[in-house]
Automatic annotation (TrEMBL), chains A, B, C, D:
Transmembrane segments: none annotated. GO terms for molecular function: DNA-binding transcription factor activity; transcription cis-regulatory region binding. This is TetR/AcrR family transcriptional regulator. InterPro entries: DesT_TetR_C, Homeodomain-like_sf, HTH-type_TetR-like_transc_reg, HTH_TetR, Tet_transcr_reg_TetR-rel_C_sf. Coiled coil: none annotated. GO terms for biological process: negative regulation of DNA-templated transcription. PANTHER family: HTH-TYPE TRANSCRIPTIONAL REGULATOR RUTR, POSSIBLE TRANSCRIPTIONAL REGULATORY PROTEIN (PROBABLY TETR-FAMILY). Residues 35-54 bind DNA. Keywords: DNA-binding, Transcription, Transcription regulation. Residues 12-72 form the HTH tetR-type domain. It comes from the Bacteria.
Length: 232, 232, 232, 232
DNA sequence: TATGAATGAGGCTTCATTCAT
DNA sequence: AATGAATGAAGCCTCATTCAT
């Protein structure tokens, strides 16, 4: 059970193995229900070694949060290619986000569920990451407005409220996409872009947002929502 | 500390006291960190009595989830007055939602954080409630479309995707509103309606949604959502 | 092994059983080497009950120290019958002291060895007891001097230095008496009284001993106690 | 922190560094609370090397005890210059004793507190040292008596009882002097010499003290030391 | 209806000690 | 001569749960 027992690894490698095991265990069982015993076994290592390298359950959990938070923000930042127009950046950033959360469900569970549920210290850790993402999204929205030669006076406070809502919706959709078989990251991103860009009001007015076509992209091709042809 | 020690109460009353204590404790400490000892003390009752009435920690937690879920859905359903037009219903339903979550932070923590974080059994319990709400919102959106004489062929699947997003955003905003001092339920509802109805696209087109003034409502006075007619 | 397993005792009784077991275990094994498991078993009780009543190993140890300290001071105070002349009081107090330490070797080990060796907190606890005893002895010495119509100006500071030395010697002799088979409490008390009353000087009739002046010596010069000229 | 990390030292030197670190750690933390990790780090050496040289924690502790015991007895023996008269020898021996314990508080803690508190094996080790010192003091007392042309028949058993008391008092005073700022070794030695030489009896001129006869008393009858008849 | 007394089980953490180089 | 990597064993503590009244 767990990793193959390879002896005498350099510390850095072992630490990553331990974090892997910890993220999986914390993600599945939850922070409190996860036992250090289980984590150590899954890492193919004795418990004292885990303590030697990671100090305590709290520290281990914090290390998990930090690693996963960095991985997620990195994925989003890389996904949002800065050479694209802002709306496309947003869309591809969202796609990267949903792709990452789908590929790392345990990491996502650690960040979105566990870290928020077990104490202010951990919650603060993810709050920092979230703030970073919200700021990033805010910049994208402002850039989009600029590109559209629109509303140069948009107050940042206003926009960051919208960014909050957008990020919040994205988080919820990530859970939903993970829980709903057959929903791809692109579909989730498209749904959210439609929701965010056009709004329900537009939907009823017949205007839709069109996802870009996906040449050479990493994920599945099909868009989720049938997009009617844009109004002329 | 805890409830005043009144002896010999009828069972139904005692049970509610216990559930009150349990919700508070589960909400504050989390499911696992909450101890039956603390709950019993807070309820002003001995531990064996808790077991006599509620059977086990799991059953107690399930009872909490059920009670809080019912209270929340009830609040939303009552808030959304069926005699109003659909968009107004949605707005007032959201307001009721944010009002309830603000007034019952522990109950909301139980439903939104704890129940989703500690095992499939509990998660299923809230999932059922959520599905109910999503269905309700879906109906409201469809009704709104109907009232606007729009898109009679909107497929329910499509709309329920949007409903998902809307509910997801609402959940996130509830946390945000609870954590941000000075944000009222009405403000939260308005923010979300703006986001949902007008979308970011509208924002950049310069169109804004204005909250209606408020005649005879239970909460703050302002009326609901002014939906501007879609631009031709 | 351990106490006979009698079920369902009132708390006060169980607590004493636990303290008995704890004093024995701490006295024999030492504070750190004593395991809560062993104490619980010796008390005929499960470990959680020990924690329920005594809170922690530290608290349990503190409770032991307090109980044994009280018992010892009480024994001494009762032993020194106040109606006797002061020297007799001192002698009978010492006898009571040696009797008690001989009869409660574990309690004595807890006070004299363990409590002083495992942290300031515990040490302070016995220091308080010791101070009380030193004060008591100081009073006895002063009373003896008064009864002998001697040196009414004896400064208390001076005398309490002697009391310190006397108590220190008594403590050491208690260990010695316990370790040397065939030495009774009365013998130990007599030895000490002889030493204290007559001194070695009498033994060799050299009367007062004068410290040499300190030419080229390493330490500070002043002698501490001003030695009064020998009685005529 | 700890010793400067110098590589490749000859074994003898490394061993002393380890013992230095061990004595400090054992003295401060106590035998059980001291960890081999801490000792190794303080010695500026890896743990396996400590085991290579000193074998085990027990052996290491024993080595500490032996080194410190030898150092202490050596200091006393050197301090008591044999060319002086016996009383002077005693005084300077005591001074050397108090000087040494004041300069090596950790070593003294190891000998006086730790070694006596953690098992018969270690206790025996210091008991040997103590016996040696008691014998030495006994000889000094006998010599003093001889020099005073007194009591040539003093039985050694009697005197060694007094030596016991004297040494016990010295041990206690060493702790007291270390704990009381401003008390020098010479002062401590003088206090003890005064106490021993003049006694309390002189203080009140009551000369010899006679134990009461023991009618109906709880303890064993025999007094230990034959008390010579009081001077007229 | 209600509770004081009691425990089996399990989790976090630390330590003395060794292996392989 | 010296060490980075690793672990078996054990200790403190807490908890959900029950018994006997």
């Amino acid at each position: 059970m767990g990793a193959v027992k390879t002896k005498r690894m350099p510390r850095a490698v072992r630490e990553q193995q331990m974090l892997d095991a910890a993220v999986r265990t914390f993600g599945n069982r939850g922070y409190m229900a996860a036992s250090m015993d289980e984590i150590a076994e899954l890492a193919g290592v004795s418990k004292p070694l885990v303590y030697l390298y990671l100090n305590s359950k709290e520290d281990l959990f914090t290390a998990c949060i930090r690693r996963e938070a960095r991985a997620l923000t990195e994925a989003v930042r890389v996904g949002a290619r800065p050479e694209l127009p802002a709306d496309r950046q947003l869309w591809s950033g969202l796609t990267a986000f949903f792709t990452h959360t789908a590929r790392h469900p345990d990491g996502w569970a650690v960040l979105h569920l566990q870290a928020r549920t077990h104490g202010e210290v951990f919650a603060a850790e993810v709050a920092a990451m979230r703030a970073e993402i919200v700021a990033f999204v805010t910049q994208l929205i402002l850039a989009a407005a600029r590109e559209a030669h629109r509303d140069p006076d948009l107050r940042e406070a206003e926009v960051s409220g919208l960014a909050e809502a957008l990020v919040g919706a994205a988080e919820s959709l990530a859970d939903w996409a993970n829980a709903t078989p057959g929903v791809t990251a692109r579909q989730a991103a498209t749904t959210l872009m439609n929701f965010a860009w056009a709004g329900l009001g537009d939907l009823m007015a017949g205007r839709h947002w069109t996802p870009p076509d996906d040449s050479g992209d990493v994920d599945a091709p099909a868009a989720q929502i049938e997009v009617t042809s844009p109004a002329g």
